[in-house]
Specification:
By secondary structure, this protein is mainly beta. It is built from one helix and 18 strands.
């Protein structure tokens, strides 16, 4: 005989699913703004006793480790009330193929939220999303996003590391922060430009993006970190911004698409090996005097450096 249970969530109560993955559906804990709300906990015990089938509609946040390591999950529909997803929430759910993310979701800021979901094949993210956290989609080798919502302003460190099918052709114009290693090893990344708000290329940001075909960088770029563009074989820059001051170790290593490069402004620091392996780079034009910037030719052993260069 079937049983019916009626439950009313108290007004103003916010619920968060937390640490379910340690038990994968048998001893899921509900965290609430009222730790003594035994009724909420009882409700979830009722649901799980009959087999976990969906994320409850009353949730507002999916907390840390909520479904971590739940290998039996295949599809997940997250209800509209959820606005954030915490760290490791779905990490190592290796059989998830699809996740329905609600339009109200604004943050996936928890680190490793979907890391190593190797079968996840998302093709879009919800409008309104502003931040994608550290290693959020690390190792999601079937992720096939071609765009990000216009509302995204922050991509944290290694957010898309090893997403080999990621095929973004552009980034949101409002994006102001791209962390280190965000696109490390994203072979199919096909960007041709970067948003004007970007001022720093962090360490390893585009390392190994073999199809990255940028022809210019934003005028506001001041720093290119270590290995920032290493192994970007199709990078086709012809000039570097006037405000660029620093190029770190191996910043452009093995960028074989570079043939002639003009510095529009005077740099203050260029690493000895910044252009190592750029075998087709034959000419570097710089507006400063010989000896003014140390370590020339900065690893570009086949290049001729034209000092005191002025365009036009």
């Amino acid at each position: 005989m079937s049983e019916e249970f009626n439950f009313t969530i108290p007004e103003g109560l916010s619920l968060r699913l937390n640490t379910a993955g340690k038990y994968c559906g048998k001893n899921i804990i509900i965290s609430t703004t009222d730790d003594e709300n035994s009724a909420a906990r009882a409700l979830w015990k009722i649901i799980t006793a009959r087999g976990f089938t969906s994320v409850p509609d009353f949730l507002t946040e999916i907390g840390p480790y909520a479904f971590a390591g739940c290998n039996q999950l295949v599809t997940v529909q997250i209800p509209d009330g959820v606005s954030s997803i915490g760290k490791y929430a779905f990490s190592d759910c290796t059989n998830i193929t699809s996740v329905s993310l609600p339009d109200g979701l604004t943050r996936i800021e928890g680190e490793y939220a979907f890391s190593n979901c190797t079968k996840l094949s998302l093709v879009s993210l919800p409008d309104g999303l502003t931040r994608i956290g550290t290693r959020c989609f690390h190792g999601c080798s079937k992720l096939e996003l071609t765009s990000l919502p216009d509302t995204v302003t922050h991509l944290d460190n290694y957010a898309f590391w090893s997403c080999v099918k990621l095929a973004l052709t552009s980034l949101p114009e409002g994006l102001t922060n791209i962390g280190g290693g965000v696109f490390l090893g994203c072979d199919n990344l096909a960007l041709t430009s970067l948003p004007d708000g970007i001022t720093v290329i962090e360490y390893q940001t585009f390392y190994g993006c073999e199809n990255l075909a940028l022809t210019s960088l934003p005028d506001g770029i001041t720093t290119i970190g270590s290995q920032g563009f290493q192994d970007c074989y199709r990078l086709a820059l012809t000039s570097l911004p006037e405000g660029l001051k620093t190029i770190g170790s191996q910043g452009f290593q093995n960028c074989r698409g570079l043939t002639e490069l003009t510095f529009k402004g005077t740099a203050t620091s260029i690493a000895t090996n910044a252009f190592t392996g750029c075998t087709n780079l034959k000419t570097i034009n710089v507006p400063w005097a010989q000896g003014q910037v140390a370590n020339a030719p900065w690893g570009a052993i086949n290049a001729t450096i034209n000092y005191n260069y002025t365009e036009g």
